[in-house]
Amino acid sequence: MHSLAICLLFFHLLFSTIAIETQQPCKSTECYLLNCGSSSNLKSSDNRYWEGDNHSSFSDQPKILEAGSSSASNASEKDPFVPQVPFMTARIFLSKFTYSFPVTSGQKFIRLYFYPATYSGHAKSQFFFSITANGFTLTKNFSAYLTASAMNSPNPTLEKEFIVNMPKNERLLNITFNPSPSSYAFINGIEVVSMPENLYLGPIDKPIVFVNNMETSIQLDMGTALETVYRVSVGGGQMISGVNDTAGMFRT
Ligand SMILES: *[C@@H]1O[C@H](CO)[C@@H](O)[C@H](O)[C@H]1NC(C)=O
Ligand SMILES: *[C@@H]1O[C@H](CO)[C@@H](O)[C@H](O)[C@H]1NC(C)=O
Ligand SMILES: *[C@@H]1O[C@H](CO)[C@@H](O)[C@H](O)[C@H]1NC(C)=O
Ligand SMILES: *[C@@H]1O[C@H](CO)[C@@H](O)[C@H](O)[C@H]1NC(C)=O
Ligand SMILES: *[C@@H]1O[C@H](CO)[C@@H](O)[C@H](O)[C@H]1NC(C)=O
Q1: How many Cα atoms sit within 13 Å of 7 on the Cβ side?
Q2: What's the CA-to-centroid distance between 71 and ligand 1, angstroms?
Q3: CB-ligand 4 contact for 141 (6 Å cutoff)
Q4: What whole-number distance in Å separates Cα of residue 157 and Cα of residue 170?
Q5: pLDDT at 20 over 90
Q6: Is the CB of 72 under 6 A from ligand 1?
Q7: What are 86-116's pLDDT values in tens digits?
Q8: Which end is more exposed in the chain, N or C (fewer Cβ atoms within 10 Å of the end residue's Cβ)?
Q9: Considering the domain 3-244, what is its CATH architecture?
Q10: Beta-bridge mates of residue 63
Q11: Which amino acids bring their CB within 6 angstroms of ligand 5?
Q12: So where are the chain's domains?
């Protein structure tokens, strides 16, 4: 009994050490990775730890608010292209539901991860919902299934990335999922990463000029939210994955 305990302790130490050595560090002020529908903390294939959204005991960790009518669910399909974390578990919502992340002021990347599948007997075509973040509508009557189908890619998962600024006096980033009438909402994973000042949203005296049209410029103030449509590595030879973003913002 005693030696078993020592043995377990040894294994625990060994695994903890390995975990510390291989985990991708967060170089930004905040990095949240929430694995929705999971009750344990799991590592994704790029060596990042995702916190299960079932427990919310740490005050500095994301908390589930309005936990009314949501439930955890496993995807009923198993696709070889789909990584386990964060895609094989989801939280599904029958009514409005808010995740609340404690954050500092400044700009944040919000990345939303979807795997359209059957969850708790609800077909992937039954999910239509809106997502808002601190007053910004990120998407409305959104169908991850229709969006992913339209992309015609062998990978059935979908990642949406947004940039939202947190004003000085706000300490909570509330991300709300609201099903359309007679529909459901779902989410597999949520990532929140803070950004340096003035990366894309900047001082008003520095307008953004287009490469192919120097005459036209746009000014994006802090009240503007952005959605990433394309990100191009200019002059780059190959795709740069999130973990290889040297600035630590996990941009792909
Ligand atoms: C968390 O997991 C427990 C046990 O699996 C379950 O009873 C509970 O409903 C879950 N909580 C949420 C918010 O999903
Ligand atoms: C999802 O699958 C895991 C592993 O098989 C299981 O432990 C868990 O209870 C399942 N969750 C739900 C909500 O069915
Ligand atoms: C976020 O949610 C909390 C708790 O419900 C609320 O007090 C706060 O005003 C919300 N913040 C925003 C910007 O909506
Ligand atoms: C959402 O989109 C679906 C499919 O296009 C449509 O049938 C439905 O009426 C829309 N619902 C709302 C509330 O716009
Ligand atoms: C990150 O970059 C290194 C060196 O170029 C490369 O070997 C590795 O495969 C990249 N990682 C990912 C996940 O793309």
Answers
A1: 4
A2: 8
A3: yes
A4: 32
A5: no
A6: yes
A7: 999 999 999 998 888 999 999 999 999 999 9
A8: N
A9: Sandwich (2.60)
A10: 100
A11: 46, 241, 243-244
A12: 3-244
